[in-house]
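stage 2 :: seqdesign
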């Protein structure tokens, strides 16, 4: 670990309030996906169950409740709770962001979750010899990677089912977006297993990376794909798209993709 990568988590040594999960939420105040530290227990549950992505998986993949799932980049665990509420019973969730991992552990305790959270690089986890899962769940992951096509191929070696929520590159949108157009530079061409893909290089704003709520990539840049290149990479990895749900965010095109090898 580099010196600049060290995380300073300022927390009290003792908490002498009446014991509650709310006390634990407040340890990471103002850094949650939703503001759990200021919510009632009922509001916390309502916000966690609001996300539709776990429900899409339960609706689309037969036998979902018996799936062995690896979730990649769970942020603070809000989708992990949603996956369990949707019926999943076997989840390994891998997070590299230390603060995100700590918050996920707080949620695990508060919701008595069965999921196992692991701290580290999920790309290394996917390379585990003999690793087999029923579903790779990758929400908010693909557009943070430096080699998204290779990632999709690796998912194809691990699981017959794949869920992705991701932004995808649309030149007209990016070129007219007041913020995003400043983040992209000249694209690169990559040849992967005989097919040529266009990798659209995007740099992270250092001020956003410094935010306590940052849950993005681990480097200073990532590569985005067009939707057609994502679809082509899925086909190349042996997947067939079962369902898509458009889900744009902040004026940028995004999509839910549910794919299977069956």
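stage 2 :: out
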């Amino acid at each position: 670990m580099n010196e600049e990568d060290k995380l300073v988590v300022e927390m009290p040594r003792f908490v002498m309030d009446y014991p509650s999960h709310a006390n634990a939420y407040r340890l990471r105040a103002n850094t949650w996906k939703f503001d759990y530290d200021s919510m009632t227990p009922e509001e916390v549950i309502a916000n966690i169950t609001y996300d539709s992505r776990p429900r899409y998986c339960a609706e689309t993949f037969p036998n979902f409740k018996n799936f062995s799932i690896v979730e990649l980049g769970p942020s603070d665990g809000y989708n992990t709770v949603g996956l369990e509420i949707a019926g999943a019973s076997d989840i390994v969730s891998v997070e590299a962001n230390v603060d995100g991992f700590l918050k996920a552990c707080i949620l695990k305790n508060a919701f008595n979750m069965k999921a196992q959270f692991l701290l580290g690089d999920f790309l290394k986890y996917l390379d585990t010899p003999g690793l087999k899962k029923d579903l790779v769940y990758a929400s908010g992951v693909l557009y943070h990677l430096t080699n998204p096509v290779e990632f999709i191929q690796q998912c194809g070696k691990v699981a017959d089912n794949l869920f992705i929520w991701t932004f995808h590159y649309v030149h007209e949108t990016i070129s007219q977006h007041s913020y995003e157009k400043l983040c992209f530079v000249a694209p690169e061409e990559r040849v992967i297993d005989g097919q040529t893909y266009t990798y659209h290089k995007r740099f992270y704003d250092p001020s956003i990376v410094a935010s306590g709520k940052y849950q993005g990539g681990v480097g200073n840049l990532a590569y985005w794909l067009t939707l057609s290149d994502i679809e082509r990479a899925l086909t190349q990895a042996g997947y067939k798209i079962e369902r898509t749900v458009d889900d744009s965010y902040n004026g940028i095109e995004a999509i839910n993709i549910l794919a299977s090898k069956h």
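stage 3 :: structure notes
- Strands lie at 68-72, 90-95, 116-119, 133-139, 159-167, 188-192, 195-203, 221-224, 240-246, 254-260.
- DSSP finds ten helices and ten strands in the chain.
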